[in-house]
Design a protein that fits this description.
It is a single chain. This protein is α+β, with helices and mostly antiparallel strands. It folds into three domains: 1-79 and 93-119, no CATH class; 139-311, Aminopeptidase; 322-496, Aminopeptidase, CATH 3.40.630. It is 29% helix and 20% strand. The chain has helices at residues 43-46, 71-78, 128-131, 149-153, 166-174, 230-238, 269-289, 302-309, 334-338, 343-359, 374-390, 401-409, 456-471, 484-488, 506-529; strands spanning 7-11, 24-27, 96-99, 103-107, 135-141, 184-186, 188-192, 199-200, 209-214, 216-219, 246-249, 262-263, 294-297, 314-324, 363-368, 417-423, 429-438, 441-449, 476-478, 492-503. Residues 529-554 are annotated as: Disordered. Residues 533-554 have a biased composition (Polar residues).
Amino acid sequence: MRSSCELLFVCGGGGGGGGGGGHSKLVTRGDGYCGMDAFGVNVSRAWGVFGGLATVRRDVICLAGLAGDSEKNQKKENTWWSGRGATKRGSARVRHVETCRYAAVRVDDGNEQHRPQGGASRASAAADDEWNAAELEFEVVDGVQKVGAAAWDALLCDDDSPFLLHDWMRCMEESDCASTRKGWTPSHLLVRRSGGSGAQVERGGAGEALLAVVPVYIKMDSMGEFVFDQQWAEIAYANGIPYYPKMLVGVPFTPASGRRFLTAPGLSHTARERLVSLAGRALMQLAQRVRTSSVHVNFCEQDEVEALTALGFAHRRGVQYHFKNHDGNEYTSFDDYLARFKSKKRIQMKRERKSVYEDAQITIRVLRGDEIPKEMYATMYDIYCTTIDKMFIWGRKYLSRRFFQLLSEAEHVRPYLTFIVAYNQRGAPVAGTFNLVKSGRFYGRYWGALEEIRNLHFETCYYRAIEYVIEHGLRTMEPGAGGGDFKHMRGFDPVITHSMHWCANPALHDFIVRFADVEGGRVESAVDAIGSSIRQPSPSRSTPASGTESDGQL
């Protein structure tokens, strides 16, 4: 009897290279084994880090539970990271490519079968308990462009961040910012069941319904992630354990929390938890089959933490500082916000604003969506580059001019773009911030200045942004990672972020679990200990502000 969460092969058999729809099977020997090396992806693109692999067509992944293979092959799979029975990185070889008659991944609820082509029963996806026992197909695609925008976005909830939109991800990949050449190999996981309800994959024809999408990238380093695991990599290599390539679930260069397993709307909590668990297990098995060391899910939501914890993932906590538009009651003006601070701090903040508007004669405008002139996108890229250039060896220019150009044409993202731009007396832009606003949240991304003007950073990044949040009744402002001290001094409260981590190597995984437990305890203690000594509640309010609730450029 197998557990209800186990993924099994449903495959018509081994080989022949010919007929019938199926998946691409990589065969490293002549016995038709459809196990460890059976996955349908474009190897030269998705797993090109292993050099020398043949290019095969991308099709439905054939994932198997480790216990579903023979004892010999199970041992080979479970020990790939130790070098026993595994091909060395950079020298993997594939002799030929064959096609199986039928392949799918299903959830086995205790009745172990090897179903032939056409033998799979299809249950309605309308009820949670029906699709739980139905067959699920997992597919890897090497870019969001392989999934229609309507199908991808249909899986988003109203409260999801704009960074999960198909347009945003497409701009990242099409601009070469998130690409194999830049260390981000797109390898997105699709979960579907033919004939079910859900978003239709436009390119896939009728009957292919998406139940979930997981944005996945294969990484050869840890840059642009903002969950810092470089120490783990050093410890791994010091013990002879390869750490890269690794598998990352998240949005490139974006330390903003949100769902990472995009499931079809309308699912119950239990059904979503089940689907997240199955997709998580699929990622773990896929990571072993393609010889990546680990799976990392960054800036995820609490329900995903719970589902992945049950699979054995390590739970890591981090801290960001967010502005919340309330102090017991929603603020009605910027002066209302200032009232929460002590007198000395209020005077200082007013003086900082005055130096920008009166002394430097700066005008600041908030440009939103179609209000943003076409030429401003190129200017904002130049502004963005100034901060990176000033950082010298620490700066990382993750975004390109082409990315900003594509954003100007992205009709589904453009309505959420919000530029705060500072102009000098001649009307020329001298500084600005690149932000997005969606579902009551103000997401601060990047800041830069073409001229050095005293206190302009505070005004464009914080004061004018907070003022905008209050004016428009938004709930929060999330300025990204870093800058905790001066953010907290200006009314930003610490919040805990979550990431989940799983390593194929048991010893390394145990170490990371212990590390995350100790670190997480200290993070929670630090957040609890952060007081509000620099602030005081407004006399007009009955409830004090919450005390616990950068890329770092803002």
